[in-house]
Specification:
- This protein has 222 residues and is α/β, with parallel strands linked by helices.
- The chain has a single domain, classed as Rossmann fold, CATH 3.40.50.1460.
- The chain is built from eight helices and eleven strands.
- The strands form three sheets. Strands 2-1-3-7-10-11 form a six-stranded mixed sheet, with helices on both faces. The chain has a three-stranded antiparallel sheet with strand order 4-5-6. Strands 8-9 form a two-stranded antiparallel ribbon.
- Helix 6 crosses helix 7.
Length: 222
């Protein structure tokens, strides 16, 4: 296991690493299935006032032939971590919390509790590509003279090539289509960065979605 130190802002990935074999998508939503079903209906009804947490999960799952979905009480920290290990592409929809006072305790809230930076460091092989539909999941804190710590900085040194993450709290309603559309572009062969660029171009006519899209960054080399 390589520890996530950041003597340079973005650590270099394994030389010549290629995506894991098999293109299965791993999806995790730390919300009860009933809430996801309601949220999906809310999205299809064009932004009703219902909570949209995890609403993109069933929509994203429809785009892939091979999918593992963990939701509700299945989306425990241990099961999600196991599903992430060695995955080609993973998508997590969960509440995120950045700890400025202790960045290594920044976390994603799973069904049974937080999934922290320390937990991610237990991975034998981090997911090759990762989409984090979570508030503040891309925030990093400077530590010392030349280190940046947070959820993202723990995954990149472990082999994750690219991550989509947010640097601010997310608008639950606006983010749902923004979390689905990158997958459609990924399916056409675009990289994560190209996918997010395309997503932003698609939101030019909607100020709320445009603002939400600008809060999502594609990080790494994926």
């Amino acid at each position: 296991m390589r520890y996530a130190t950041s003597s340079s802002p973005w650590p270099v990935h394994e030389a010549g690493r290629t995506p894991p074999s098999g293109g299965e998508l791993r999806l995790a939503a730390a919300q009860p299935q009933e809430a996801i079903d309601r949220a999906q209906a809310a999205y299809r009804l064009f932004r009703s006032q219902q909570n949209a947490d995890g609403a993109e999960v069933p929509l994203v799952a429809q785009l892939y032939d091979e999918v593992t979905v963990l939701s509700g009480d299945e989306a425990t920290a241990g099961q999600v971590l196991s599903a992430l290990d060695g995955a080609w592409l993973a998508h997590i929809a969960a509440h995120g919390r950045f700890r400025a006072d202790s960045p290594l305790f920044s976390s994603l809230r799973m069904h049974d509790g937080p999934l922290t930076v320390y937990d991610f460091e237990q991975l034998s092989r981090a997911p090759y590509l990762l989409v984090l539909s979570s508030c503040e999941s891309g925030v990093l804190a400077p530590v010392g003279a030349d280190e940046l710590l947070g959820l993202v900085s723990s995954l990149l040194p472990l082999g994750t090539a690219g991550i989509i993450a947010s640097v601010v709290p997310l608008n639950d309603q606006a983010v749902v289509p923004l979390m689905v559309t990158p997958h459609r572009y990924l399916r056409t062969g675009q990289t994560l960065a190209e996918s997010m660029h395309s997503v932003r171009q698609d939101t030019d006519g909607d100020l709320i979605q445009r603002a939400a899209a600008m809060s999502l960054l594609a990080l790494g080399a994926g």
